[in-house]
Every structure is written in C-alpha cells, then in structure tokens.
Amino acid sequence: MQEGKFYSVRMRAAKNGSHEQGGKHISGGEKLSTLSHMKHAVNALLEKGLTHSRGTPDFMQIQFDSLDEPIKLIKPLQIETNEVESVEIGQALSWNLLEKVGISRQIIEKAYTYMTQYSGIRGAILIDIHLGERIDYKNEKGVRVSRMDWMNTNFEKWADYYKVPKNSRVKEALVLATKVCEHPATVAELCWSDDPEYITGYVASKKLGYQRISKLKEYGDERGCRIFFVDSSKDEDLNSYIQYLEKQPVIIQWGEENDSRMD
Fold first, then answer.
1. What's the DSSP call for residue 70?
2. Which of 93, 134, 163, 233 is the most exposed place for a label (fewest CB within 10 A)?
3. What Å distances lie between residue 219 and 87, 95, 178, 251, 262, CA to CA?
4. What does pTM read for this prediction?
C-alpha cells in the first residue's frame, strides 16, 4: 500500500458539449492516487477518455480532491465467467442469478424496462426490490459510484492467481461491484457497458460474487445500463446509502492484508 495522503481523481468526457449541455457521454473513470503519482493517474484517465470506441470527446473534465476520511479496505468479490452462445441465453442467465438472491421476476421485468428508458445516463439507477420503483431521484444523471481503486501490484497478483486477464476493464468493473455489494442494503447489481464493442456484462452480489456473462447485448449497441437492486428495509436513510456510494473511499485489497481500515 502506498503511504501518504491520497487523492480522488475523476474524469468524465462527452461529445457535442458537456453533459450539462446535453452532450453525449463518452467515457468516465476513477482512480485514487498519492500526489507523487498524480501525473500518471491523470495521464491514464486522459488516455482512456480520448480513445473510447463511443467517439472522440470535445469536452473533458479531470479533477482531484484530497481524501480526509479513512480508506476502507475490502476483499474483491469472487469471480466466475459464464460463457453463453447468445444474448438471449445471457439475459436469461442474468434473470436466474437475480432470482437466486431473492429478487422477484416481476421486479426484474420492471428493471429491464428502466434500462431502455435510462440507457443514456452517466450513473446507476437504484431500484427498490419490494416496489420495483426507481428511488434515487437523480433523473438523467444517476448515482455515480466514486472514490475507489485497486493498486496495480495487488491486482496483478490476484489476476495471476485466478488466471484472469490483466486488463483495466475487468479491474474497474470488479472494483465498483465490490464496493457497491459491500453495503448491506445492496441486494445485487446488473450491468453492461455502453461501449458498442464490448458485449460482456455481469450480475454481482455478496452472495453470488461477480458473475461475468459473455453476451448481455448485441455487438454495436451503444445502450448500457447499471442497476443497483436495493433493500430499503436494510437502510431506511437513502441519503446515507448514496453518500456511501459517492463519497466513501475504498481500496480493494486481496491476499495478505487482514486489516479492515486504513488511516
């Protein structure tokens, strides 16, 4: 683990103006960095924003701020890859996995209608598992999970152990899913990318781990989704749940570390 003060570094990129001006979302990214590694973090996010398959942005914002809160260390979710032959089989599998964690088919069906309605938003939508209603009230912005990372050396050890490709896409998705599913109010997450060239998605939960599904949308489709299924009875204060997602600093730590928190 790096010593010294940490900073949250965030990037968002859009085309045809900023997001606030109705621009098309191109890319976003998150890193935690010490000041000595800030240039590397900023350059990595700059490269990500400029080389996305959704297009070349004409608006990009990269910002950082210091972290004053203790960073929570979390073990990564267990990972499993499910190879499927078609999108239909992949989506049927996602339904089955969500049912396994206690979400009814009626609620899942309702969630899939939200995907079409909100496929262009930047963040996640929160759905109550009891009512099937969207509860975050963030409109077209959604909830942006932030302040999270996985140090490369530790990630690469994990990837070698589980024979997982050492690519940033797997790393970033698992970091986010692990943070989200750590909260007791999260029942599951369903996600696939808005990248038209990437058709793999996942279902994640504390119970099932990180279940990658090789086909969850058709190649060339720019519609993506990120849905958090929330048990509101586990956390009656929705604001505190969103505060955790947006503000609690988290580093994924696999293997030798046993401590749960770091100052």
1. P
2. 163
3. 10, 20, 26, 32, 42
4. 0.89
